[in-house]
Amino acid sequence: MTGRVPTAPPPPRSPARPPATRRPGGDPLIRLFHVSKAYATGSFALRDLSVEIRKGELVFLTGPSGAGKTTLMKLLFAAERPSEGQILVLGRNVARLGERRIPALRRRIGVVFQDFKLIPTRSIEDNVALALEVVGRPPREVRSKVFAMLRRVGLQHRRHELPPALSGGEQQRVALARALVNEPAILLADEPTGNLDAELTLEIMDLIAAAAARGTTVLVATHDLALIRRYARRTLRLEAGRLIEDASGGAR
Amino acid sequence: MNVPYQLYYFVRAALRGLLGSPLPSVVSIATIAVAVIPLGGLMIITGNMRALLDRQGESRQVTAFLDLELDAAEETALARRAAALGGVARVELVTREAALERFRDRLGGGALLEALEENPLPASIEVTLAPGEDRAEEAGAVAAALRALPGVEEVAGGEAWVEGYARALALVRGAGLGLGAILALATLLIVANTIRLAVYARRDELDILALVGASRTFLRVPYLIEGVIQGTLGGLLGVGLLYGLYRIAVPQLGDALELFLGWSQPSFLAPESIAALVAGGAAFGLFGAAVAVARTRVS
Q: CB–CB of B2 and A137 under 8 A?
């Protein structure tokens, strides 16, 4: 496969791994080895973070504001580079990934943000289609996949409208549709429900959990503890850039 | 990655950009059009000057009028010497009698000629020049050589004004090149900045595209296409406006043009020149866009 970094360290198969990261399921899709992210000011956003996430897992990432949740997300889709350590995502060493290799990585990672990041001047349909167009899929295939995806999030009847005409919950469903339409291996959701009320939060979270059930590896950053309790999945807790807890959830 | 579909998305994005923010596009198009007008105008002037020079050399003939005192043998000898000159293809000796005959033919016979006691017309040698590149200069050289022959009274063709005119043409051309260079630079800066503004205006959109995995090519090529479209439209608009000016100005300038360009009506740009101007516009649009996107970074 293109984009695989031959110099990446082989996965350590030692029994000395911490129990929290040894789980049943597929191969690890995301691995961080002693990752630190420092800023020019000398302050650290992340400090010596090592973690492993396996295929098909749904993992919550929590912690107070400024704990490094967003930084961790950005490192995973190569919007930022770590100051130290190695990051393996889908077999690529993201820490050293060349500029030109980044698009190929991002096509296999769906990303959702608190502020949706939709293009306000383009229809719902066009917004979702972007993820397929950048890959160069044929227009007919794009249309049918977008329609099917919008039906999955219950918005096929509003596909010709512009994002500002939709409620926050609906806009996030569009963003989710865009993130998932190209069937990514990984879904990263950074405070996806931060702008939504309780009911809409569950609606979005159910869609995210459904994606995980279909085999997508999902990482959700949130400080909504009620949400974490409700879904009872593995939860990584960050504080001041350090991983202070890696708790497996009850339900799995 | 499928290239035809990519191309479809590129063109669609470029058109969307053009139509989505028409004002900056109009600025680019107008700038290119404004640059094309003076350049095209100079091309019209130099083209017509060149055409006049070519017409002048076209007859490719220099005529040497001979001394009235020469006898037929001397005339023939002179014709032979003329034929031996460099750059001469062939010569024809027109005797005094033949000249009178021609004159009579032209006037349709008439009482005026009957009244003449003696043939007033000199014999002449009509020299046809060998084919060559710079007709005007060659004609001048041959004329000078003929003038130097003893027994040649006067030489017509290859006049001195041709040389001066050719120099004027070179001057106009040089000025045109200088003006062209300055206009080109100004146009390029304006177009590049206009497209850069368009890129900034769509920054959020570009960030989102980069987020879903758009390659550098996918982000940049639509702007290059936009530049080419703007340049082509600007070139066409410029040529169109220039044609309008030409139609209005030529009848007004009448006499002044006659002095400068001779009797003929000045012609508009040749199709090749129009194509060159439009292609030049397109190239500028493309180059301006390339400069603009090269300096843009997306997260």
A: yes
